[in-house]
Amino acid sequence: MIKSSKSILIAILMMAVCSFGFSQSGNEEAINRAKMKYSKSIQYNDFAIAKDAIYDLMVLEPNNSAYLDSLAYMYFEFQQYASAALVSRDALNRNSNNRLMLQIGAKSLEELGALDQSLKMYERLYSLSDDAFVLFEIIQKQYDLKKYDDAMINSELLLGKPAVERNNVYVKNEAEEEIEAPFKAVVYNVQGMIARAQGNEEAAKQYFNKALKLAPNYALAKENLNPSEK
């Protein structure tokens, strides 16, 4: 549900470096040199060198947790999920309420197939944020882990959130094109999947029809309603 981009990566990392401030370690010259190396490498899209510069800065200023945030984000953006998960874990050891690191850690663990650990991180993030999109991620993980009762309870909770009523999300139509659809339609589709997994086919079809009433071109809901036509 959440998309990232290189432009976001550059903005976050540049803001981080600019906010690090002056060194208190007596290594100010080396730190400034590493920051310049980082800045220039970002300017020329050389992210390998930028990552190297972050490691230099981490050695020079080991107590500055902002470097860990930047490094985790960089690993995540370039789909190095194992490294992103490890760095985000270390960052969370310093600040367990770091929402960005919880998000990166949860998504990285999901990509690595560690769904139980990913679910725990999403649950922690939701306890801090009360974010409807995070709750949707929790429901998806619970479904994947066959925790169907928990997933259905949370889906009902999600439907009561204002964000579900006012937000659209991107889904695909039958031509594999991205289209906008009401968030509520996606939740109904997931409820249908949960009901089917629980053995309640009649309820499942009702949920899929609700989804299609809101988003008639929602391909996944159509496929779920008529799985024999796939």
From TrEMBL:
Mind telling me which InterPro entries this protein's record contains?
A: TPR-like_helical_dom_sf, TPR_rpt
- Tell me which domain of life the UniProt entry assigns to the organism this sequence originates from: Bacteria
The name on file for this protein is Tetratricopeptide repeat protein
Q: Please list the coiled coil stretches.
A: none
**The keyword Signal is assigned to this record:** yes
Q: Which organism is it from?
A: Marivirga aurantiaca
Per-repeat ranges for TPR: 185-218
Residues annotated as signal peptide:
1-25
The record's Pfam families line, in alphabetical order, gives: TPR_8
Taxonomy of origin reads: Bacteria, Pseudomonadati, Bacteroidota, Cytophagia, Cytophagales
